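Running this now, will post back.
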Amino acid sequence: MANDGTTLDCDAILFDLDGVLVDSHPLIERILRAWAADRGVDPDVAVAASYGRRDIDLVRVVAPTLDAEVEAAWIVEREERDFTGVVPIPGAAGLLAALSSARWAIVTSGTRRVARGRLRAAELPEPVYMITAEDVIEGKPAPEGYLRAAELLGVAPNRCLVVEDAESGVRAAEAAGMRCLGIGTALADGGIGAALDAWATDLRSIDPEQVTAEHVRLNIHPNGSN
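Update: finished.
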């Protein structure tokens, strides 16, 4: 993992949503803690296991004796109508504004209604292509979502750069044969670093040096100075 600044060239950028483009973690945590407390699940375990996972996959992990579809529907129903406190990650609006609409997509573990609501709440644009929980059979860390996004953009997987804040997403990018830029403190340390091509504190650390109709070159400044 790079520490002193890196230049990355790619033909498309595939963004995770929560924790990468929008800060929705306080909202997600509030909903999950309410669900977990009502089901006799350790709330801390539920929150820790949620990052990068679809709700149905989360239930299967932390509460395997419960009906995953029923429980996920309870969580999703609340996620689809509550967007209190959702804000953009610092630097998100500027970076997306610099990119051509043909050069980026979102791959999220949330539903389409959740993703659209959080983008609206954060006043960020919706991409042409957005892969959500309904679009895949297997969620992250399976590579299906990222491979589907690359296909829709018409870009080879090895020419895509994934931007992720969770280990499951990094593993999905790795399985898809894509490079990965880690964002945030959760990926700053630990064994996952070997799977990252670069790391930065947030999107303010990313300088889109060159953006054309078919190519993007990014300078990554891990400490936030660009």
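The mean pLDDT is 91. More later if anyone needs it.
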